[in-house]
Amino acid sequence: MHEKDCIFCKIVAGELPSAKVYEDDHVLAFMDIGQVTKGHTLIIPKTHTKNIYETPPEVAQEVFARVPRIANAIKEAFQPAGLNVLSNTEAVAGQTVFHLHVHLIPRYGKNDGFHATFEQHDNIASEHLGELAEKISSKIQ
Ligand code: AMP
Ligand code: ZN
Predict the structure, then answer these.
(1) What is the DSSP string of 70-131?
(2) Is the pTM above the cut of 0.90?
(3) Is the beta carbon of 67 within 6 A of some atom in ligand 1?
(4) What is the CATH number assigned to the segment(s) 7-114?
(5) Ranges in the chain, pLDDT < 70
């Protein structure tokens, strides 16, 4: 299923160009046009799904199953020291294209342009973790 105004659906359909890394019946991987670091690659499902929240397990399986192979190809190609894998979900988390995509961002050092810093807050005491876990687990469908 393709969404009319979705740029990644247009890439899948060949209506917009992309620098392809990998393609099969279910997924496409291509270079991110805004390279955070050298080799920054996106993996997307060919069917339109907005983000992780709305992705059926079989689509997630296709996309995430390709991550290790493509990550290792990037590793072989550019010898980064590591890699960040992320999928920004909703605008507040930095999602700008609303077609599921997984970023593979090779890492070359602390000052390579990718800022993966986050602060761990100590305002939730560890004795409450069980309570939080229960709230989530009771919602798993
Ligand atoms: P996000 O901000 O997580 O939604 O990521 C969207 C990513 O898509 C950004 O890193 C953009 O640089 C990238 N992007 C947008 N348009 C294109 C395009 N036509 N080809 C390749 N990458 C794109
Ligand atoms: Zn789409």
Answers:
(1) HHHHHHHHH--SEEEEE---SGGGT--S-S--EEEEEE-STTSS-----PPP-SS-GGGHHH
(2) yes
(3) no
(4) 3.30.428.10
(5) 1
